[in-house]
Amino acid sequence: MFVSAFELLVKPIAPPPFDPAVSRRVVQAYFLTLSNLNPPGEADVALSIQFTPTPELNNDELIAITDVGAGNVFSDLVADPVTGKPSQSLTLPSGKTALFVLQPDLSKAPPNRASLAVANLEVRGYVELSLSPYSPTRTAEILVTPQHRGTFLPAAPILPFADFDQQSYPLQTANPGGIIKFTM
User: Fold this and answer.
1) 32 and 103 in contact (C-beta within 8 Å)?
2) Where are the chain's structural domains?
3) Is the pLDDT of residue 97 over 90?
């Protein structure tokens, strides 16, 4: 089932010929909150979050983070066993909510496109959610809330008090109301 569009960025807000000294950089990530609406006590649901990107996603430029209630778990995207698309698997207990984040990895050094020195990462596409073939249950109602969060960084941060601005905005879901129902 289609969830939403997505866009990952590490780019100058105003590229040349504008003066790079005054052109801040934007770092934008994709956040997806997933709530399992099945009543507590029912079987967990195993899900696959899949990406269709342009251009391809490169794990060396990204950080994938999943939090299903026990803290952040960092991992790489892997090929979905059915579709082959870059994906993240997660098991979501009934009645619980999880957060998945896909963001540029700013810790990388040049020539990595996600590094702040290069700041030339721009990937967009769409996100799908599917029931994993390994799911203990074949029926589920999942509430999805996708959003982008962006951070604006100064061209030359003055540490320790660099000025960062942030924004977040919800993304339109492909399914009105944001509930995805799986019945098999």
Assistant:
1) no
2) 2-183
3) yes
